[in-house]
Design brief:
Chain lengths: 111, 244
């Protein structure tokens, strides 16, 4: 039994969070959130994987890997991309309003 | 919170989450194993409805309601980003007269690839139920094709040939079309997003019932969504300037 793909997924999640905490710029923070989310792609795909199986298209030889996990991964990627776009738009607004993208300098509330 | 306090909180949390992840993984079914109950149910269901690309059948037929939620997230974030990036009161759109130089080789390649990319994008969308691909993937390819105008040509050219309002309308219409197709299913069979159209012959272009039409709707929505998003970001970088 091999745990490595699952451990990679967990490691990606934690290293993404590590990056968010360490981040000195909001664009870096957004990229780290995307890294953390990519852990879920690895987890989903490794759950659906089967040794020797081919892509889930009819006509493929032999058994196929789990298509439900691939569909979930597709959903995941779409959501991640759109959320990244929305967060980057927020970063542009923050940079315009406050003149900084360093989260440590954004500690006071503004009305 | 100071930086050091933040690190203490992070390491405590990460330690806990990491331990739980490892404990959970130890009980997982083994990687690459033979047991895939969802696959054993999804594959016959997809083939029974003439959709050789099983992932598309799952996304647009068996789990179509989830895809409606997914494309609503897409619509919501496009609306949100476009709203956030609108030029404010003290900003105006000004186009630079001088846009720099594009290498001849880039121009040639860009204009050669533009029609090719459009055709590949359309192919990926419309054969989404037959071969790997679908509305989401093809939509991104189509939006990339539009932006080759910017890479190979100029920002002015892109703005002239890509009327933003058309794409905003197309975005809304495509998102609405998905719901309308769902309602057709509801009226005809009593189940929202049911696959009501004839399933056709396995492998034909017009087969797999609603999967084909939902793919086309999602393709249109993703194309226009990405175009609207990128147009807002490009305007922020290239033309929106503060005027005092």
């Amino acid at each position: 039994m091999s745990l490595l793909p699952y451990l990679v997924a967990g490691w990606l999640l934690l290293i993404g969070c590590f990056g968010v905490v360490r981040s000195r710029g909001l664009v870096h923070t957004v990229v780290c959130v995307a890294v953390a989310q990519s852990g879920t792609y690895v987890l989903l795909l490794s759950i659906g994987f089967q040794y020797g199986a081919s892509a889930p298209v009819q006509g493929a030889p032999g058994p196929v890997v789990d298509p439900v996990m691939q569909a979930l991964t597709l959903t995941d990627i779409v959501v991640s991309a759109t959320v990244t776009a929305l967060l980057l738009a927020l970063v542009i607004q923050i940079a315009k309003r406050t003149g900084t993208v360093d989260p440590d300098q954004l500690d006071e509330l503004r009305g | 919170m100071t930086r050091s306090a933040r690190w203490i909180v992070f390491w405590l949390g990460a330690g806990g989450v990491g331990t739980l992840i490892v404990l959970a993984l130890l009980r997982m079914p083994s990687f690459g194993g033979l047991v895939h109950p969802y696959r054993d149910l999804a594959v016959p269901a997809a083939v029974g409805r003439s959709s050789p690309n099983i992932v598309s059948s799952i996304n647009f037929d068996q789990r179509a309601l989830d895809t409606l939620g997914e494309e609503t997230i897409l619509l919501g974030s496009v609306v949100g980003a476009a709203t956030l990036l609108r030029p404010s009161k003290d900003e105006q759109e000004l186009l630079d007269r001088d846009e720099g130089r594009v290498l001849e080789a880039t121009k040639l390649l860009g204009y050669l690839l533009l029609p090719v990319t459009l055709i590949v994008g359309a192919d990926v969308v419309f054969h989404g139920h037959l071969t790997p691909g679908g509305g989401f993937q093809g939509g991104v390819v189509l939006a990339t094709a539009v932006h080759l105008l910017y890479v190979a040509g100029s920002y002015r050219l892109l703005r002239r040939l890509r009327p933003k309002s058309w794409y905003q309308v197309a975005e809304a219409v495509a998102a609405g079309a998905f719901v309308v197709l769902g309602l057709v299913g509801l009226l005809l069979t009593g189940a929202f997003l049911a696959n009501v159209f004839p399933h056709g012959v396995l492998g034909d272009l017009f087969s797999a019932g609603t999967v084909f039409f939902l793919n086309a709707a999602v393709g249109a929505e993703v194309t226009s969504g990405v175009v609207v998003l990128l147009s807002a970001f490009l305007a922020q970088a290239l033309s929106v300037r503060e005027v005092s």
